[in-house]
Amino acid sequence: MDVDNCLLYIFQELVPGGSIAQLLKKFGPFESSIVKQYTQQILFGLEFLHGQGIIHRDIKGGNVLVDINTGVAKLADFGASTTLQLGETQETLSIKGLLTHSLTDTHARTQLLTHLPPHPLTHSLTHSLSYLLTRLKGTPFFMAPEVLAHTRYGRKGDIWAVGCTMIQMLTGEPPWKDRNIKTLIQLHVLLSTWTESTPPIACKNELSAECRECLEMCFRKVFNSLTHSLTHLLTYLFLQGI
Question: Structure pTM?
């Protein structure tokens, strides 16, 4: 800190190699062994953060940097992160969001109101829609259903985003990209009605049973605090033997 000139200098670690998203663009989808390695490292980082009461809220390939000299992946961009109070598992989002132009799509608006719960204070579906579209934080294709439906984001939301990042590494694209989703409303309706265990995965190689099991864990919609945790996820066979 330069007190005389009122300047604050921030020194950041250089991570040569760029982000996972940049590597995917350059080299294409990763082999399963690379996905396994990076997923484990992402989970180790998130396990530490969650232990400190910190929720990242924007896990994706673009926010995971890779050191090409060591092969170590590191979480980056904490601009969307937040902290939980002691004993809390979720918190209400409070940062202005994106895609408010979706309100002009009458058909999509009607679809969303069919699936959206009433606003917690006014019990008005219209207010709930406005609340949803102005208080979301994160990247749409990596958002969990509860983030879209209830504007809530806890530890489970980060786990869902890890699953999305795994699909991004396996296929080169985030999930749902092939569905021609143009608005946040369309994505919300899709997630509200989706009944499969995972999003569609257009992978060039068939996924192993262990990899699919790990993905299914990430995309579970019903939360169980004992089994739906990063510590539990790290015990899955797909993430062993690295």
Answer: 0.77
